[in-house]
Amino acid sequence: MAEHSSTTQPRTPPKAEDIPPQSQDSMPANEYEMDPPPDYAPRHPGVGKLKGKVALITGGDSGIGRATAVLFAREGARIAVAYLEEDRDAEETRRIVEEEEGSECLLIPGDLGVKENATRAVEETVSRFGALDVLVNNGAQQWLDQDFGALSEERMRRMIESNIMGYLFTTQAALPHLKEGASIINTTSINAFAGNASLITYSTTRGATLAFSRSMAKALVGKGIRVNAVAPGPIWTPFIPGTMPAEEVEGFGGDVAMGRPGQPWEVATAYLFFASSDGSYYTGQTLHPNGGEIVGA
Fold it and tell me: Which stretches are tagged as biased composition: Polar residues (predicted)?
């Protein structure tokens, strides 16, 4: 297994005051436009925790999804990345997985809120790699709805389709291919537990993701398939400049206990725990990388 000395050295994460004002007009937004760039890089050499496994990661082009794809590749997995339309970010993720981590990466663009696209993402993964062992449902969209009464039906439906239906459709398509020992990991949010007055619709979709994870865990435990969730707090990803006005992005993460935003690599380790045999006695559970916010389990 290749060594990765360039990405195993300690690096100080940016503080909240290191985040300047910035905003983007797209959702999902672009990682390559962010300042400072999110830190996706794993901190430790791989030991083969996912050797021979195949992982499909939705929203894997950037942010938490990119960090998870790179970490899984380092641990021996072959990677399929499903994403909406952020081709430049997706190509960079593929480059990192293949050139820096020595694995394989399949890119699958498309809106997973459309069932046929979700089905195609799974079918292309299995066709390319011959199996599917880990499904990470991570792709999502988010908009502020500070004036909930004025939020458009279009945006409500867009978040529901992306954040709920996409997870349901992709999991449906994956089930025939998942065997005993497989793992499904769903991204939920601290907002599913704590609520957020500015993200009412988004928080609602993440609450649905949490309920979906717990229910699927009970449904699949007899088949030896584990289903768990990760509930990130304020993480420096394209979600932030894509959601918030520039003046609110400045100093992002300063109000949490650790006084800074989390970086994507710090969240990816939770997905690796659930995906690997390290998490073999966990199903229906949630990990909370959120910088110190105490919420219900």
Answer: 1-10
